[in-house]
Amino acid sequence: MPGLLYHKWLIVLPIFIFMAFPGCGKPTKEKPADMPELIPCEVTVKLDDSPLPGATIRLLSASSPSSKKTWSVSGTTDASGVAKMQTYGEYIGVPEGEYTVLISKSQTDDVPRDAMSGGNIRMDRSRPQILVDPSFANPAKTKLRLTVSGKGPVKETFEVTGP
Question: What is the pTM (predicted TM-score) of this model?
Fold first, then answer.
């Protein structure tokens, strides 16, 4: 019976530690002093009027780079085509400003192939399939723009086309 009690403690102890020290699993960083206030921003991407999951979105400051510091802002759409934009990939929200929006998505399928050595099956990667017209990922060609201002959350939807 002592072995059974030992096994119960192996299960209960980690749960107790997890509950006793909430937030320890995800460290938080303080926002840098020179970072402006961040405004919550959600971008929805649609392809052929349907949500596009797994799309990468980058926001490039449309302001002159010499006039002020620029911030790295990006996000990836979830299953419903919505991305919660983050600055430096760590801080939720976007600094106020005018942005050029870049959207891209490609997909690589694993293709099973018989390796001919003992009947083992090996997975080979096929060429990436581009799902969004590359012009949406080119700062010189995209026409997508986003204005982030005010205190409230910004929600914007962009419709993209295939290649």
Answer: 0.69
